[in-house]
């Protein structure tokens, strides 16, 4: 099936059988359907439901809330060997009504992989679904043949063993998620995502006894039966932003901490496409100490908020002097209206987590002045330019609506059979990511991490404020982002937009490291 047919089919399915019939609009005209889809779009970020829509989307008051925050328990690893079953599961999110059907990773102990630098892990994955899947170890520089990219499907009913040699100096917060050809967004939207921590034996924050906590954010789109909704056309264009935000799989849970305690929080945005502008409020500032590739050279100055793009991670230290809430503030990542004037969602502030104080006050901890050395990548031998663009056309054909929607890199859509270029192992390259669109795209590269050099906006280039190892960088509309990257292992590597819907619709490329 070529891309054009794929898109046309999915559009007609969505309109004619999916949305239309479920909403009871099956006999309406096409124009009406488009109108209703516009309303659906307006709902995505939790704006007030209109009467017609209220029957289909969840009202968050239906959800169980205020439960104690759950923490992840580590997977049992026996001499580095672990087993994951990718299989259907359920979660009771509704106060009243059926459990939510999810796609899930199941494992003995728990789904968090918690390991040390230089460990060798051997993880067996069994696929219990009726379609191909893969497991990609996001951000970890593992051998290309264990990277879980789309060329390595695990067929339904089959097993694959991944060998993960966790690199030296790679301590940080990672995650794993599916990456099959054109099904990544669907599978992730249904629940497939889990955290992965790599530790160092000499971590300056652990040495101080700072307690740590992992907060993984997901953003499911639920109907009023508590079930995951199909990904609509609007969501394919703008990404699934979800109508609720879960923290560690819970809706608005409660975290109890001792007064004055300082926590190291590992923040992981595991949503398909929801930008999270996180804040505990002005009295509870965040001190960022790490990015995707682990600790920074030194703590940054205190800030009141932090933007976490899809797939991005950050480590922050927070001292809880008073009870507070963690909120997601409005963020405008742009909007495609499908040429139909589909209404842009009203983005309101969401409460994600409540923090209450309990017990005896603890005494304040001073963060170390330095955390970890980061060597700047040297001079680049090669410069590469990646221009992100969109292409959307609508028309009528044989009385049917036809839509072409493509998300492109250098005017090309992803092709499994095309290798976009070749690189040399150990050679530093400068990549320029030019966002020629009207929305943000978080850009990710597999394999080695990169160091962001500068961000250019309105022809003004600003040096990136600090040195850090990253594997994803948000490119805002019309920005150019430059980073240096070096691959230390040979083999095939993907690069793509981490709005997973865009990735599935072609905003991805692949290159060979020789
Ligand atoms: Cu997390 Cu290729 O992606
Ligand atoms: Cu990745
Ligand atoms: Cu994108």
For this entry, give a set of tags.
514 residues, 7-stranded mixed β-sheet, mainly beta, disordered N terminus, binds CU-O-CU linkage, globular
Structural class: mainly beta
Sheet with the most strands, sense and barrel status: 7 strands, mixed
Q: Give the distance, in angstroms, between the N- and C-terminal Cα atoms.
A: 31 Å
Characterize the overall form: globular
Strand order of the largest sheet: 11-10-9-13-18-15-16
Got a strand count?
Answer: 31
Give the count of helical stretches: 7
Mean pLDDT, as a whole number?
89
CA gyration radius, whole angstroms: 22 Å
What bound compounds does this protein have? CU-O-CU linkage, copper (II) ion
Oligomer: single chain
- The percent of residues in helical segments reads 10-25%
Q: Detail the poorly predicted runs.
A: 1-55
Strand content: 35-45%
Describe the protein in words:
The protein has 514 residues and is mostly beta strands. It is built from 7 helices and 31 strands. Strands 11-10-9-13-18-15-16 form a 7-stranded mixed sheet, with no helix packed on it. Strands 22-21-24-29-26-27 form a 6-stranded mixed sheet. The protein has a 5-stranded mixed sheet with strand order 12-20-19-14-17, with no helix packed on it. A hairpin with an 8-residue loop joins strand 1 (81-91) and strand 2. It is globular and about 70 Å long.
């Amino acid at each position: 099936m070529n891309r054009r047919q794929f898109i046309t089919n999915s559009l007609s399915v969505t309109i004619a059988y999916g949305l239309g019939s479920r909403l009871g609009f099956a006999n309406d005209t096409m124009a009406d359907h488009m109108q209703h889809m516009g309303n659906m779009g307006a709902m995505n970020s939790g704006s007030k439901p209109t009467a017609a829509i209220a029957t289909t989307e969840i009202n968050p008051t239906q959800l169980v809330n205020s439960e104690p925050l759950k923490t992840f328990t580590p997977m049992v690893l026996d001499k580095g060997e672990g087993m994951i079953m990718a299989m259907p599961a359920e979660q009771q999110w509704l106060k009243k009504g059926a459990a939510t059907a999810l796609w899930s990773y199941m494992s003995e102990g728990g789904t968090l992989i918690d390991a040390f630098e230089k460990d060798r892990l051997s993880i067996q994955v069994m696929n219990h679904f009726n379609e191909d899947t893969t497991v990609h170890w996001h951000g970890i520089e593992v051998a290309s043949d264990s990277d879980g990219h789309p060329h390595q499907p695990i067929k339904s009913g089959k097993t694959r063993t991944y060998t993960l040699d966790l690199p030296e100096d790679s301590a940080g917060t990672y995650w794993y998620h599916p990456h099959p050809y054109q099904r990544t967004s669907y599978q992730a939207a249904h629940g497939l995502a889990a955290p992965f921590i790599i530790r160092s034996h000499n971590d300056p924050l652990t040495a101080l006894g700072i307690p740590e906590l992992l907060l993984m954010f997901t953003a499911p789109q639920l109907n009023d039966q508590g079930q995951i909704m199909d990904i609509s056309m609007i969501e394919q264009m703008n990404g699934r932003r979800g109508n609720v935000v879960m923290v560690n799989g819970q809706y608005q849970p409660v975290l109890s901490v001792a007064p004055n305690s300082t926590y190291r929080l590992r923040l992981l945005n595991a949503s398909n496409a929801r930008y999270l502008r996180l804040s505990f409020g002005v009295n509870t500032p965040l001190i960022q100490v790490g990015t995707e590739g682990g600790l920074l050279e030194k703590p940054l100055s205190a800030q009141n908020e932090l933007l976490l793009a899809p797939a991005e991670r950050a480590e922050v230290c927070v001292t809880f002097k008073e009870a507070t809430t963690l909120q997601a503030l409005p963020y405008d990542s742009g909007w495609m209206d499908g040429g139909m004037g589909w209404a842009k969602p009203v983005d309101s502030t969401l409460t994600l987590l409540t923090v209450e104080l309990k017990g005896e006050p603890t005494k304040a901890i001073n963060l170390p002045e330095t955390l970890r050395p980061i060597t700047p990548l040297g001079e680049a031998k090669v410069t590469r330019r990646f221009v992100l663009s969109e292409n959307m056309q609508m028309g009528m054909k044989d009385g049917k609506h036809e839509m072409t929607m493509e998300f492109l890199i250098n005017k090309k859509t992803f092709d499994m059979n095309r290798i976009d270029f070749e690189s040399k192992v150990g050679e530093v390259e400068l990549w320029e990511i030019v966002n020629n669109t009207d929305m943000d795209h978080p850009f990710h590269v597999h394999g080695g991490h990169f160091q962001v050099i500068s961000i250019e906006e309105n022809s003004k280039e600003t040096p990136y404020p600090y040195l850090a190892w990253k594997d994803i960088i948000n490119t805002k509309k019309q920005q150019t982002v430059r980073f240096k990257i070096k691959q230390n292992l040979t083999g095939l590597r993907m690069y793509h937009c981490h709005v997973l819907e865009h990735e599935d619709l072609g905003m991805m490329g692949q290159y060979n490291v020789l």
